[in-house]
Amino acid sequence: MSKLLTRRGLLKSGAVGGAGLALPTIFTASSASAFTNEPTGGTVTLGFNVPQSGPYADEGADELRAYELAVEHLNGEGDGGMLNTFSSKALGGNGIMGKKVAYVTGDTQTKSDAARASAKSMIEKDGAIMITGGSSSGVAVAVQGLCQEAGVIFMAGLTHSNDTTGKDKKANGFRHFFNAYMSAAALAPVLEKLYGSDRAAYHLTADYTWGWTQQESIQAATEALGWTTVNNVLTPLAATDFSSYIAPVLNSGADVLVLNHYGGNMVNSLTNAVQFGLREKQVNGKNFEIVVPLYSELMAKGAGQNIKGIVGSQNWDWKLSDEGTAAFVKSFGTKYGFPPSQAAQTCYAQTLLYADAVERAGSFNPCAVGEALAGFEFDGLGNGKTLYRADDHQCFKDVLVVKGAEDPQDEFHLVEIVEVTPVDQVTYDPEHPMFAGGALGECNPGA
Amino acid sequence: MLGIKGKDLTLLGVVAVLALCAPFILNPFPQDSAMAQFNAGYPDLMQRFVIFGIFAVGFNILFGLTGYLSFGHAAFLGVGSYSAVWMFKLLSMNVIPAIILSVIVAGLFALLIGFISLRRSGIYFSILTLAFAQMSFNLAYSVLTPITNGETGLQLSLDDPRVLGTSVSDTGGIPVTNLFGLEMRETTTMYFGDWAFQFSNGYYFCAVLLLVSFYISIRIFRSPFGLMLRAVKSNQTRLNYTGLNTRPYTLAAFVISGMYAGLAGGLLASMDPLAGAERMQWTASGEVVLMTILGGAGTLIGPVLGAGFIKYFENIFSKINDNVLHQWFGGLPEGLENGLVWVAEHFVGSGWHLTLGLLFMLVVTFLPGGLVEGGTRIGRLIRGKTRRADEKSAQSKPAE
After folding, report:
1. Pairing relationship of beta strands B178-179 and B182-183 according to DSSP bridges
2. PROSITE patterns given for it (chain A) (predicted)?
3. Chain A contacts of B176, Cβ < 8 Å?
4. Are A155 and A350 spatial neighbours (Cβ–Cβ below 8 Å)?
5. Are B166 and B77 in contact (CB under 8 A)?
6. Residue A112 with chain B: CB contacts under 8 Å
7. Most CB atoms within 10 A, among A149, A291, A319, B80?
């Protein structure tokens, strides 16, 4: 106890001394700012909240690389990356509104609780004016809710659930990444072309917000083609062995298996499915097929040989040929020695979009920034022409349908692009039943 | 005073002063200095300090007194959180009903689990509680999804019914948790030269409850009931042979500590209206065991210190990244700087578990009585050998 007492004594005497010196300035400037964490000095702090441990740690590490690159480019270091190809020219490489960009990082651990604690400390302790990141829809929804309450902007990272900009949408939250509905809308025509319109699908679905909306979307889109849905089985996120879920598929009469899994889940379930010989099977006189609606290069790497020929969708791929992608891949590759993942691209784009919106709004006030982002049309960030829709703060852009490469030349070419689905085909009404039930509410500047 | 005296009263006083002055004590460094990284005086972390302090104090009533090591205490915390969030969704945003419900529900749940688990002691008891907690965790993830909202976590929404209150606040958002109108998240910042001290309503609400919990814990420790629990710890077989049925006592201790956990869970939800199943995971149960042992099992103040220690590491060390490290070692030659950063970065950021593990090892090896024993030893060093008479009483303290 005496350790604490001396420490307290020391602090107390320090505080008393300080009080004498600072008496005239005491109780000044208390909550005089117009919004939460108004930047006053020469720097502005952004909060990068990514999973550094847990099942999505690989994605998180790549997101962090992209954020660091974005900060470099905003501060005028490096080669500028997509700042040079971005259609809006408000950013000049001198920080945001002349303030140098600083950042803090945190670990979400892919847990809603930890993610909120980390985001809170960024807001309360480090004075972050914007929070971005997240590699799971559960986390994104939780942190978005927190940012709405605290009065800062949330720029979602990798989150694919319909709910993020559907029933859980918030005025202070913005998503650049695509969503489950868009995946389904882009995949359906390709699936019809490849596998015909008379198929019976069996779904294995990760049991949380993303899995649910993903499965719902794919089921609706494929049933519109004339497919039937044999069964939908929910699997726990923590599962690592899917054998017991795969075995019933064999005798179910289904001829397509849809794996609504992501990350390590997908790697394991796909491996199990291939081990059970599903891909060599003939059902109803047709080849048995496997579909993985949401794909990433990191997952393809994990699944190895098993990924060959499997169809899925992506938000972006480094092999695209537009100049934004080229510029980004070049500066990312120069700095880190390998091409960026789609998670990196969406996080990089989100940071630039935020900085640009502040610049155009002429203020860091979340309400002004939100207004500048809502309905904003841009190009040159790797996805072609893109719209940030005002109704739900979702970006609308082309979606890629991809396939596991049959004969990859190296580990960076595991995925090949089958088709670029134009944006019109994946656009939906803001009141679509899969997205209904939520409201943006009013923007909250805090303070 | 208050039915306690002497050292206990001093201890309660010390805890009270520490809790009330925490915004000052935890913010020793000026805002703009390089050391500001180590400040912990922001509302969210201070709330966590006291909430997990309550959790550990409750756990200590079971583990410290009876020696029954529960590995499933996080289940009660989780149940408390879910109850509180449901209260916010259905009844009102006032924290009082939410906390009352979470304590009651956690107590009932503890009664059920305790009734079954306490048929065994030792490692079998630990395994049983662990099994129950893991079961609750898995249920929350799967079958109970309608109640718990699964992996996404239970959150408030704009269409909650909220019988005694409004579904939507005046500004169109979700109303915030309050104590009869006093908003929990409201924070007043006091500037003091270069220092900024944050006083949060939520924190002081938690701090008052910590004091109440701490006081109750002192009373239990000093009561005949506490003495009986200690007797269970030292030799339960002998107690049984004297014709005493110990189970009602251990069950009571189990339920009380479950209620403490429920209170902590309810408070967590009151500060931030969200409940996730991961609060019930076995790692969370293990954490409270670590807190108690690190601080000093069986001592009154130990668990609170342990909780603060672990939460400090989790929140402060995990946020030091290589960028910060480069700033610290910036003055050194390039090669040396990179080398030091390479070594250090494994111990901070996502590697904070490693640092905590090392410290835990050191504490358990060299200070079996936890941080409290460390404090006592330092105290003895300062006082010197002139007061040898006092040594004996000081020494016996951690063993209580």
Report:
1. antiparallel
2. TAT
3. 149
4. yes
5. no
6. 152-153, 274, 276, 278
7. B80
Same domain, residue pair A49 and A159: yes
DSSP state, residue B197? E
Cβ neighbourhood burial of B386 (10 Å; 0-12, 13-18, 19+)? exposed
Question: Given the structure tokens 């960030």, which residue do they identify?
Answer: A381
Domain count, chain A: 2
Rounded distance between C-alpha atoms, residue B68 and residue B252, angstroms: 12
**Cα(A403)–Cα(A415) distance, rounded to whole angstroms?**
6
Whether residue A212 is found in the same domain as residue A130 = no
A386-388 and A377-378 beta bridge pairing: antiparallel
Residue A339: which domain range?
43-178+318-397
Own/partner pairs, B358-364, CB within 8 angstroms, 24+ separation: B359/B313, B360/B290, B360/B294, B363/B294, B364/B293
pLDDT band at A440 (very low <50, low <70, confident <90, very high): confident
Contact yes or no for A236 and B174 at CB 8 A: no
- Retrieve residue B285's tokens: 């149960």
| Size of chain B, expressed as the number of residues it contains | 400
The reply to whether residue A236 touches residue B138, judged by beta carbons under 8 angstroms, is: yes
Mark whether A325 and A391 lie in a shared domain. Answer: yes
Interface subset of A 207-246, CB within 8 angstroms of B: 207-209, 234, 236-238
What distance in Å separates the CA atoms of residue B88 and residue B229, rounded to the nearest whole number?
37
Residue type for position A429:
D
CA distance, residue A47 to nearest chain B CA (Å): 11
Considering A283, A314, A345, which residue would you say is the last residue of a domain?
A314
The CA distance from A444 to the nearest CA of chain B, in Å, is: 8
Q: What is the pLDDT of residue A25?
A: 39
Report A:274-333 residues touching B (Cβ under 8 A): none
Mutate to test the interface with B, among A77, A111, A235 (most CBs of B within 10 A): A111
When the pLDDT of each residue in chain B is averaged and rounded to a whole number, the result is 88
**Residue A259, domain CATH:** 3.40.50.2300
Best mutation site among B148, B154, B192 for testing chain A: the one with the most A CBs within 10 Å? B192
Query: Within a 10 A sphere around the Cβ of B388, how many other Cβ atoms?
Result: 10
The percent helix, strand, coil of chain B (3-state, each to 5) is 70, 5, 25
> Which residues of chain B neighbour A108 with C-beta distances below 8 Å?
none
A3 in a structural domain: no
Q: Helix, strand, or coil here: A248?
A: helix
The pLDDT, as a whole number, for residue A32 is 53
